[in-house]
Write a structure and sequence with these properties.
The protein contains 3 helices and 3 strands, in the order E-E-H-E-H-H. A 3-stranded antiparallel beta sheet has the order 1-2-3, covered by helices on one side. It is about 35% helix and about 15% strand. The longest helix has 19 residues.
């Protein structure tokens, strides 16, 4: 069963062009090539409810407290390429919320693994016990 692709309408994406930081020669101070893309996850009608919940539940520093995803793209020297990069990253972020995580099945340790753990603890204990002063006389 494959998930249907989610299409985000243009009016839900807010783009702002700012001057990029870092190297770029004379151009860097004149041309606003970096892109700041904002997408409101919490209020987007395009996202199905389970996907929205999974994306908002992620602990991602790019998501604000209000549920707005903020992506900064300034890897490239042209505005168009940075814009494309930001949109690709948005698509990747949304795609990561499409798949529900597999539930963890609780398992119990085997008898052999318990025995190995206890043997390792006993071994460490013996090593540490041997580190004491032990009544040696260095005089």
């Amino acid at each position: 069963m494959t998930q249907p692709a989610i299409a985000i309408p243009e009016h839900e994406i807010v783009e702002r062009f700012v001057r990029a930081a870092g190297p770029g020669g004379q151009n860097v101070n004149k041309v606003s090539t970096a892109v700041e893309l904002r997408f409101d996850i919490a209020r987007s009608p395009s996202l199905p409810e389970p996907v929205r919940e999974r994306l908002l539940a992620r602990r991602d520093r790019r998501v604000t407290g209000d549920g707005v995803l903020v992506l900064n793209a300034q890897r490239f020297r042209t505005q168009e390429r940075n814009r494309q990069d930001a949109r690709e990253r948005l698509a990747h972020f949304i795609e990561s919320g499409l798949h529900a995580p597999k539930p963890r099945l609780a398992t119990r340790p085997t008898r052999a693994s318990k025995q190995r753990r206890l043997d390792a603890k006993r071994e460490r204990s013996t090593i540490k016990r041997g580190r004491g002063t032990g009544g040696r006389d260095w005089d």
